[in-house]
Design a protein that fits this description.
About 45% of the residues lie in helices and about 10% in strands. The chain has helices spanning about 10-20, 25-30, 35-45, 50-60, 65-75, 90-105, 125-130, 145-150, 160-180, 180-190, 240, 255-260, and strands at about 110, 120, 215-220, 220-230, 245-250.
Amino acid sequence: MTTTVKAPVGELLREWRDRRRISQLDLAISAEISTRHLSFVETGRSRPSRDMVLRLGEHLDVPLRERNRLLLAAGYAPAYGEAGLAAPEMAVVREAVRRLLAGHDPYPAAVVDRSWNLVDANRSLALLTEAVTPELLEGPVNVLRVTLHPEGMAPHVLNLGEWRAHLLGRLRRQVEQTADPVLAELLTELRGYPCAQPVPEVEIPGPGDIFVPLRYRHRDAELTFFSTIATFGTPLDVTVAELVIESFFPADPGTAEYLRER
């Protein structure tokens, strides 16, 4: 795993603390260290131990990839591996993912990585991508780009403004939580895509609404979905920690019947 580190560990820790809006005192109390020692670490006057870096990363809820970066900045080797999904040791993960995907048929489901690139999907996802221009389906396939691009799913999303606001909101929060420059660049790109419908700044439910639906036109049918997100609960590998499984469910009996018939 190759990682480039420019900033010292103290500066990186302070950036993460500021991003989480946690004071030095609160972090020191939760991590059970003195505020004086934490201040010395952040200003570079004290070099933290490996255990201290890991402890602070845990209490700041820093992603595993960035915890490795903190360790490298402090002069230590990364603690968390990053095996490719095709690696032999990931066989149990691949099997679990495929079982989840296959078990969700005839409803669409997909697995994405940290950058929203498609990792795997079940057969039913093809229903949503049937009208997408082939260029957007050449690897790596970014599911957010496919969804909101004017030559992707966007012309068939009946509530595009609402669904666009939902997706951009999720991505914006992810950028704030991870400080990932790749995701920030993707957010800028997606914001530049045209949308003829009003895009709400805040998701406010209407009468009887309990979730933001995806309303999609497939040929002559109008389908309505809601989605759930699943992640691995106890990841110790960067790749596993960053996998996200999104499963779509029919939000009305007509959609369910249409999918079962197909």
